[in-house]
From TrEMBL:
Residues 1-20 are annotated as: Disordered. Residues 25-71 form the G-patch domain. This is 2711_t:CDS:1. It comes from Ambispora leptoticha. One of its GO terms (molecular function) is nucleic acid binding.
Length: 80
């Protein structure tokens, strides 16, 4: 066995973009925003110019922490 770890087969879910979850109108956040006057398709904020879609989160393939990348890990002395 070499230095590389074992290969792990990645499972692709039936709904990789989680559209069924994001379109579910029975969730707590959707109900709360609706009670405050928000309607789907409008932006957030007083002028309704805020984000109209949910945040996109990249799938992490490594064991680094949140927000860390290979460049910051290699240059840890430069950040002190």
């Amino acid at each position: 066995m070499g230095l590389a770890g074992p290969r792990i087969k990645q499972r692709i879910p039936s709904d990789p973009r989680n559209l069924t979850w994001s379109n579910d109108r029975s969730k707590f956040g959707f109900k709360m925003l609706s009670k405050m006057g928000w309607t789907p398709g409008k932006g957030l904020g007083v002028n309704e110019t805020g984000d109209k879609e949910h945040l996109r989160i990249p799938h992490k393939q490594d064991l680094l922490g949140v927000g860390a990348n290979k460049k910051t890990v290699d240059n840890w002395l430069d950040t002190t």
